[in-house]
Amino acid sequence: MGNTFAIKDRAPVTRRQPRERCIYCDSSRYREKDTRNLGDEHIIAEGLGGTLVLEQAACEACERGINSFEQSILKTVLYAPRIHLGIRRKRRKRGQETIKVQGNVAGKEISVTLPVKNIPVLLFLLILGPPGILVGRPSDIADTRGAWFKQLSSGSPIPIGFESFSSPILDTFKFCQFLAKIAHGYAVDVLGDEFTPTLLELIRTEATTARYDLVGGLSGTGEPSENLHELELNWETNNGINYAVVTIRLFASLGAPTYLVVAGTAKPANFP
Ligand SMILES: [Zn+2]
Predict the structure, then answer these.
(1) 268: helix, coil or strand?
(2) How far apart are the CA of 21 and the centre of ligand 1, in A?
(3) From ligand 1's centre to the CA of 24, what distance in Å?
(4) What is the distance between the alpha carbons of residues 54 and 58, in angstroms, rounded to a whole number?
(5) How far apart are alpha carbons 69 and 181 in whole angstroms?
(6) Could you say which DSSP state residue 192 is in?
(7) pLDDT of 242-272, one tens digit each?
(8) Residue 121: which of 174, 162, 77, 69 has the closest Cα?
(9) 62-96 residue pLDDT tens
(10) Alpha carbon separation from 9 to 54, 57, 154, 225, 248 (Å, rounded)
(11) 3-state DSSP call for residue 234?
(12) Which of 10, 18, 229, 235 could form a cystine bridge with 55, CB 3.0-4.6 A?
């Protein structure tokens, strides 16, 4: 059982009918004193090849808050992989994209801007245990099980001339927000208003710490699939509470880790 959505590389966009309410704050206006329609919301960012769009589903203030973490993730840890895999907006000529890298050259720490095509491209993601709320783990304890990485470019893992090399760091708090935003959007797509959301505080950046009670994953890595990304929603029960759990598999085609995010609880009368 469950609801699934697979995103194929370069697939056409799937648009859902206008919601006319912000899915994050419930506002019906894009901004105050303005009759402009609410913004369309990509469940997985367009910059990551996302193809599922909720029309008229975000106000300006929520869009801004989301951009602050989403763009940060897309422009740091996921930047070189997106360019390498050809997942990006066509702003620049292919092959011209650059990235700032740091490393040690001839005994000196340097920071230089290099074309992405000239650096080794690594995709680096966290492996997480299950969301704490599903297994009774306290909310302030993280169950991080290490890192998953894959070198996407061929050749040396260090650029020519460098003795050591560092790629952008992963901001784990922003990455949790990034996953939470995807999970909430997908839960809204599948369930509409028929659930009580749990991720809004984290998405609206009111939370100050990563919520590993709500954001977790499967400890193993699955086999690579034919899809670029995969989404699925299932109900899970713990302590008599029914949780809507969104499975997020980014870069499924590369065999990247699977994330489980608790998007909400069932409204008692509506639980199937
Ligand atoms: Zn809003």
Answers:
(1) helix
(2) 8
(3) 5
(4) 9
(5) 10
(6) T
(7) 999 999 999 999 999 999 999 999 987 655 5
(8) 77
(9) 999 999 999 999 999 999 999 999 886 565 666 68
(10) 19, 24, 21, 12, 16
(11) strand
(12) 18
- Tell me which residue of 30, 29, 259, 224 sits closest to 125, measured CA to CA: 259
**Biggest distance spanned by C-alpha atoms of the chain:** 68
Q: Rounded distance, CA 121 to CA 158, Å?
A: 10
Phi-psi bin for 86: left (phi > 0), alpha (psi -120 to 50), beta? Answer: left
> What pLDDT, in 10s, does the model give residues 126-139?
999 999 999 999 88
Do residues 45 and 67 touch, judged by C-beta distance below 8 A?
A: no
Closest CA to 148 of 123, 167, 172, 171: 123
- Ligand 1 centre to CA of 205 (Å) is 12
Q: Which residues surround ligand 1, an ion (CB under 5 A)?
A: 22, 24-25, 27, 59, 62
Degrees, nearest 5: CA angle 253-219-221: 20
The residues near 2 (Cβ < 8 Å, ≥ 6 apart) are: 232, 233, 234
Cα 150 to middle of ligand 1, angstroms: 36
CA of 66 to the centre of ligand 1 (A): 10
Cα dist from 122 to 23, 78, 86, 212, 254, whole Å: 34, 9, 14, 25, 12
Q: How far is the CA of 77 from the centre of ligand 1 (A)?
A: 27
d(CA 196, CA 213): 16
Q: How far is the CA of 74 from the centre of ligand 1 (A)?
A: 22
